[in-house]
Amino acid sequence: MPPNTSWIPSFPVHVPELEQCVELEGESQQARGDCTAVYQHFAIPDTIIQFVTADQGTLTAIFSAYSRNQFWQGDQVMVRFSILMPVYNREKYVRQAVDSVLGQTFTDYEMFAIDDGSTDGSAELLKSYGSRIKFIQQRNQGPEVARNKAAASAQGEYLLLLDSDDFFFPHAFATYDRVIRAFDSPPLVLGAEIYYRDGQIVPPKAIVPSPVEVIKLKDYLSKRVSLTSQCSQLVIRKSAFDKVGGMRSSTPQNWHNDDMNLLLRLGTESPCIVIRKPSSFAYRLHSENSVKNVKAIADGLIELARLERQGHYPGGRERRSERYAIIGGRASTWALRYCWRGGQKKLALRLLLKTAPMVFAALWNKALRYFSKPAAPVVLPE
């Protein structure tokens, strides 16, 4: 009979892996063995792991050790969100990005701004915010290395990725918090975006909060709906980010498709919650968007295909067709819409040839959508 754990103090944040192990203790030797790895992951001291039983005193010690090691480092307590924003020569846009974080209605967060070797006034601008943001400076190594560096110091239960030319709407964090609470701390949440051209006015309706409408997926690989992917829409539980090894150690030349690579790494983490309404951030269209580098994106997609063939993404053979469809869908769109129409026909053909089996998987997956019932959206109660 499982021990009565109703007396256990509420966790400051929800950590499913640890809570489940607390409830499993005393069930069996196998359960205790499985949970030992979890305790070690969360830095529970060996002296406590060694004497784990189902009695109240030991479980209290486990909780206390967890709180001490995970929620307190020096004088800093864990927060709900850590925002990770790399910056490279974005002096024109970065102030709006930072201000959009500081102006949130939900305030349990910390913000990391990582200057990635900028040669304009970006670093000086970021320094002017003082203690309101956590400023990190590095030589130019690319956004993935920058975000990994900030994530290593992050105190947030969840990591929010923000590109320095985008910005959040004031209700974004409050919306994310509602979704996280409603779905029992999912490992992956995808925000909704609005596209707008630099210099234009964002539609006023985008800034006004609306009822929260979401779709719950088994995981990202199981999606049967068309989804965009940008870094600024990713809300990732830090334990899940750490579990998959974070982002790549790429370079300023080959970091493209960093969002898709991370989504594939997180592809089997369950569940995945997709926010349909309200929009949580604005994606700015301007002359220096990274997607303007058509060849770099194409080369990045070929690299994703190579990594897939080498078995770098989770799910095994059973989920291969789903991974293929995701990579192939983006590759075919990029080859036809951007390479071919942009006059780079050789690049388009090269991309299609290098990802041919995946393109076919994407076409098959698209055909199947006509015969499958899409996931019904859920409107969260007010």
Overview of this protein structure:
The protein has helices spanning 16-24, 29-41, 46-49, 56-71, 94-102, 122-127, 143-153, 172-182, 238-243, 258-265, 294-309, 320-340, 345-354, 356-369; strands at residues 72-73, 76-77, 79-87, 109-116, 134-138, 156-161, 167-168, 188-190, 193-197, 213-217, 234-237, 272-277, 281-285, 378-379. With 382 residues, the chain is an alpha/beta fold. It folds into 3 domains: 16-72, no CATH class; 78-292, Alpha-Beta Complex (Spore Coat Polysaccharide Biosynthesis Protein SpsA, Chain A); 294-369, no CATH class. The strands form 3 sheets. Strands 5-4-3-6-11-8-12-10-14 form a 9-stranded mixed sheet, with helices on both faces. Strand 4 (109-116), helix 6 (122-127) and strand 5 form a beta-alpha-beta unit. Helix 11 runs antiparallel to helix 12, helix 12 (320-340) runs antiparallel to helix 13 and helix 12 packs across helix 14. The longest helix has 21 residues, at 320-340. It is globular, with a radius of gyration of 22 Å.
Quick overview of this protein structure:
This protein has helices at residues 16-24, 29-41, 46-49, 56-71, 94-102, 122-127, 143-153, 172-182, 238-243, 258-265, 294-309, 320-340, 345-354, 356-369; strands at 72-73, 76-77, 79-87, 109-116, 134-138, 156-161, 167-168, 188-190, 193-197, 213-217, 234-237, 272-277, 281-285, 378-379. Helix 1 runs antiparallel to helix 2 (29-41). It contains 14 helices and 14 strands.
